[in-house]
Amino acid sequence: MRLVIGLLIGLFACGTVAASEKVDQLAEALQLSQIMEILRKEGQAHRQELDETHLDQKGGSFLEAQVEDIYDTVWMQSQITSALTENLTSVQVDQAILFFESAVGKSVVSLENSARAAISDETIEEMARHAYENEPRDDNFFKLVDEYIQVNDLINQNVQNSLSADFFFFRGLDLEESQDDAELWAQLLAQTTERTEDATVWLYSFLLLAYQPLTEAQMRENIAFSRTDTGRALNKALFTGFDQMFDEISYQLGRAVAHSMRASDL
User: Fold this and answer.
1) pTM as predicted
2) Nearest to residue 108, comparing CAs of 35, 163, 171?
3) Distance between CA atoms of 238 and 118, rounded to whole angstroms?
């Protein structure tokens, strides 16, 4: 009996290690490490906005160090890989790897990352917005980008994640926890229409910029993958992981700003 139990434990451990290795392979195919580095740089830009908005630019080295610690890329990536592990079956992980290691999958990820890094420049973002505003809505490329956005429910998901992140930021900012959660959430929900408009403009501007080099066949293959059970499960897993990650980051940013406020008052 001991031998059988030992064998079962050994087999389970091997299966866990194999599953972990597969998720790591998927993370590499999705270029998660590059994404986390882009987000870390965006975090430093966001720190400057927080410093100006909430601290009259008195955050200084304290806030800078806090934000550097908060945007821990190793921890950030672990949040996403955990979500992938928890929300995808082993078969779905294999199928996702197959797509994102294909020529089309590699192109999609590389183009998205390059565009995300580029659009952080205000000049390029303005150019992308201008291109979106002037893109003919009956153009085939625009229709394909629109289909991709709708299939993946990108606007609604981004709006919900944005509202959630702001909720946790203000909870962190209120160290005394005197705010009423229901009232705070109601105030944020009142911004849904405005948030939706902002998310719509940003997403179309970003994806029109990112996917411009793709052929129609490549776009259709990308959309086709998104329509599969694996594509939908992956989309859900990624949004879940990023939502949890940004909620925690936002909460810690709120706390960092609050502590900076107190330090400047002393």
Assistant:
1) 0.89
2) 35
3) 22
